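Could you help me review a protein record that somebody else here produced? This is what I was given.
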Amino acid sequence: MKKILVVCGNGLGSSFIVEMNVKNVLGQLGVEAEVSHTDLTTAKTEKADLYLGSKDLIAVLDDGTRTVVGLTNILDQNELKSALEKHIL
């Protein structure tokens, strides 16, 4: 099963909202995945198949070994769906 990690600065509000949206979109796509949210510091030590977050924040996780997707608008369901279709399906 794929693991998706939603990342924000503190690992609280915005990442939790995006986590719920990811689960909703995955349900619509009929895809099962483990989805969780965390803060940026913790994300650096966690393994995942996909890291999602706002473009300005998530870029620091892109070390060439991770699949990192920076979202322009973290609340845009269409952008989120496109990212998941591209990297999870």
Summary: Residues 5 and 51 are 5 Å apart (CA to CA).
